[in-house]
Hints:
Layout: H1 12-28, H2 34-53, H3 59-74, H4 84-104
Helix pairs in contact: 1-2, 3-4
Amino acid sequence: MNVYVDDCSATIPHMIQIWTALEHTAGNLAPMPDEVMDHITGAIGDIRREIIGAPATNRAEALAKLHFVATLLSDEQNDMGVHLDELRLVAEDLDRVNALEREACGLGAAA
Length: 111
C-alpha cells in the first residue's frame, strides 16, 4: 500500500490521528478476517513511516513527532519497536525547526 502525502492536506498531527484510529481498530475490534487485518496493519506501518519521514515544518509538528515516538517507546504491546534511525530523524527535525526559529528571530544559525 502506498501512502501519498500532499503537503497542503496531510500534516503530521493528522497522520498521527489516522495512525491512532487504525491502531485502535486493529487492537480493539478483533477478531477480523486475516486479509482485513493484513491491510490494517500494513497501513499502520506505512503511516508510521510517513510520520517519521515527513519533515516537520514547525515546532508543533516536531513535538508531535517526538510525542509519537515516545508513545511507541512506552507501548509495552508494540512489537514493531522504535529504531535508532527514527529517533535520529526526529532529532534532526527538532534541530531544523530550532534553526529556522533562530533564523526567523534574526539570531542566525547555530554554530
